[in-house]
Amino acid sequence: PGKVYSDLLGVVYRRLAEEWGVEVTWEECQAYGLSVRQWPAFDDSREALAYLKQHFELVVLTNTDNVSFSGSNARLGVHFDGVFTAEDVGSYKPSDRNFDYMLEALGRRGIGKSEILHTAESMFHDHAPANRHGLANCWIYRRHDKEGFGATMNPGDMPNYDFCFHSMAELAAAHQAEVAGA
């Protein structure tokens, strides 16, 4: 649980290559692990987050490590009010430890559970633990037109969610409409 995400991905890459009978060098495995900081953001995320930042504090709870997230953060172009990585916590979501860590840190800043909207794609890594912690949550269901759960595990019993949008842009648009109607 304490292994840095980029190192963990290198090991996973090697294990998958072994399972599939593909020869790889350790350097290739490491390069894959280090590639996280170059992974692209979803096209709508940067603009949606910039809009949401005008109205809310934004916090990240991520399974990546600090260096890897710094690359993502640069592409997203927004200053997050809190960044909690698996490297900081010493465990990976869906562990309750990650959510406890975030909630304790936000609580010290005077932010209570009732003020949090946990927003994510993964039912397994995010929404199931958000349910266990009594957090309101918003499912960004990018895979709405595809079967399965993509790169995340099937959560088993589907967690509950309070809101569902197909993109961050739809979430931002819903907020804009709510503000306009107020």
Structure description:
It is a single chain. By secondary structure, the chain is mainly alpha-helical. The chain has helices at 5-20, 26-34, 45-53, 66-76, 86-89, 96-108, 123-132, 168-181; strands at 59-62, 82-85, 117-120, 136-140, 163-165. The protein has a three-stranded parallel sheet with strand order 3-4-5, with helices on both faces. Strands 1-2 form a two-stranded parallel sheet. Helix 1 (5-20) crosses helix 2 and helix 3 packs parallel to helix 8. The mean pLDDT is 95.
What is the element layout, followed by pairings?
Blueprint: H1 5-20, H2 26-34, H3 45-53, E1 59-62, H4 66-76, E2 82-85, H5 86-89, H6 96-108, E3 117-120, H7 123-132, E4 136-140, E5 163-165, H8 168-181
Give me some keywords for this one:
three-stranded parallel β-sheet, mainly alpha, 182 residues, two-stranded parallel ribbon, 8 helices
Low-confidence stretches: none
> Got a strand count?
5
Largest sheet: 3 strands, parallel
State Rg: 17 Å
